[in-house]
Design goal:
437 residues; alpha+beta; conserved putative lor/sdh protein from methanococcus maripaludis s2 fold; Elongation Factor Tu (Ef-tu), domain 3; seven-stranded antiparallel β-sheet; six-stranded antiparallel β-barrel; 8 helices; elongated
Length: 437
């Protein structure tokens, strides 16, 4: 009962006290004066911004003026302001993409026996993927009744002196790639039912051109029955590769067939001596990746790359006046370029803070420059640049570091900024003065 009586008495007391005693009405903002001067008064201790000088109503400290876009030498040092010069020059776009190394399928050779039989022995070439095979090296030993019978027929034709039959049988052994067997019979040897199948090509044994590993079940096995023309081994050139890239949609139109590419890898770094060119570009985009597939073909004489290695590819495209890739014979076009660090963006609106003037004491005055931007570029040092369609001129100085702080100061002072093109005085978003925040 005592608590209830206290609450009722307190409410009655508050109802009788005038509003002016309890609440301070926010000071009206003079939109014209504030927007013109861009001056606010800030408490150095508390989060309070006022419109006139005097003590802070929260802590009592004397408030200091905040003028948008004007910084003394000391303020520039404390805010870490760095300036950059707007330049002019050619627009060279760098396209980066990543891909996986695989063997070049254009060098694929398949070892096949021309006669049926059964595998009775595997040589080193048929044991492991990645084995380097020389031309003429044996792959398997094959037991073949068909070849044994043909050797007998050849021996009989020799005894009978049937030239026509002898020529036909010799041609059969040539088609089977078994000329040594026929030569042995002609030399007086006896027929054999087991003989080696050599590889007519040199290369590395592969089972998957994408480098995803080896499946031993796909290699010839002892006891396996093999029909004529059944593949035994797949061989590729060990120093020739291809790379499949996924180029982002926003940069895909800057890639052209025949374009030179610079490669690097995580473990080997830059590979300046590896020659790579664009050989094929997909005519459509991947709907899930939002990228365009690009194939590169390259030669790595030092064999530093391995199938399955992840590499980074960099394309350089010189843009013409229409922002498309220019031909080599086309004279280079000149563009206005600004460092990306100097551009503040909401994704729709882009601005930069340009130096409007200096005084003898080192004070710098900045002004807001709305921008119309072109594509983003990258120079040799890795610095990002924007092509400026409108808003800046070559030779202008802009804040490249600390521009966000300058913009924040403009928001506090109520002058035009990135988020408030007309300034806080021209919007209804200005937070009223209140020490209760």
């Amino acid at each position: 009962m005592t608590a209830v009586a206290g609450i009722v008495a307190g409410g009655a007391t508050l109802a009788l006290v005038p509003d002016a005693t309890l609440f301070t009405a926010p000071e009206p903002l003079d939109a014209a004066g504030a927007g013109a001067t861009g001056v606010r008064w800030a408490c150095p201790m508390m989060d309070f911004i006022g419109h006139r000088p005097g003590p802070c109503p929260v802590c009592g400290m004397q408030m200091t003026p905040v003028t948008a876009g004007e910084l003394s030498r000391e303020q520039q040092r404390r805010m870490g302001i760095e300036l950059a010069r707007v330049t002019t020059g050619p627009a060279v776009a760098t396209v980066r993409a990543h891909g996986i190394v695989r063997y070049d399928e254009r060098t694929l050779q398949v070892v096949v026996p021309r006669v049926a039989g059964r595998v009775v022995k595997r040589h080193a070439a048929a044991l492991h993927a990645g084995t380097l095979v020389q031309a003429g090296e044996p792959v398997v030993d094959l037991y073949s009744p068909e070849a044994f019978a043909a050797q007998g027929e050849l021996a009989a034709a020799l005894k009978l002196g049937e030239a026509h039959t002898l020529s036909a049988l010799l041609q059969r052994f040539m088609r089977w790639n078994l000329a040594p067997l026929a030569e042995a019979i002609v030399a007086g040897g006896a027929p054999v039912d087991t003989f080696p199948i050599p590889s007519p090509f040199a290369g590395v044994v592969v089972l998957d051109l994408e480098g995803s590993g080896m499946d031993r079940g796909r290699l010839p096995q002892v006891g396996q029955e093999i029909m004529a023309d059944t593949p035994l081994l797949r061989l590729v050139e060990p120093r020739t590769f291809m790379v499949v890239l996924q180029v982002p949609e926003s940069r895909a139109h800057w890639v052209k067939a025949g374009q030179a590419v610079r490669l690097s890898s995580d473990d080997r770094g830059a590979l300046p001596d590896v020659s790579a060119t664009v050989s094929w570009i997909s005519p459509e985009l991947d709907r899930e990746l939002r990228a365009r597939e690009v194939h590169l073909h390259l030669v790595d004489p030092a064999q530093r790359l391995l199938p399955g290695s992840l590499v980074e590819a960099r394309f350089e495209a010189r843009l013409g006046a229409d922002f498309n890739v220019a031909d080599a014979a086309t004279p280079p076009a000149a563009f206005t370029l600004v460092p990306k660090a100097a551009v503040l963006s909401t994704g729709v609106r882009h601005v930069a803070w340009r130096v409007a003037g200096r005084d003898a004491e080192g004070r710098v005055r900045f002004e807001l420059a709305p921008l119309a931007l072109g594509p983003r570029l990258e120079d040799e040092s890795g610095q990002d640049l924007y092509v400026v369609r409108a808003g800046l001129n070559p030779g202008d100085e802009v804040a490249a570091q600390g521009s966000f702080l300058i913009d924040s100061q403009a928001q506090l002072a109520g002058t035009p900024s990135l988020l408030f093109p007309a300034g806080a005085a021209g919007t209804s978003n200005l937070r009223p003065e209140s020490p209760n925040r």
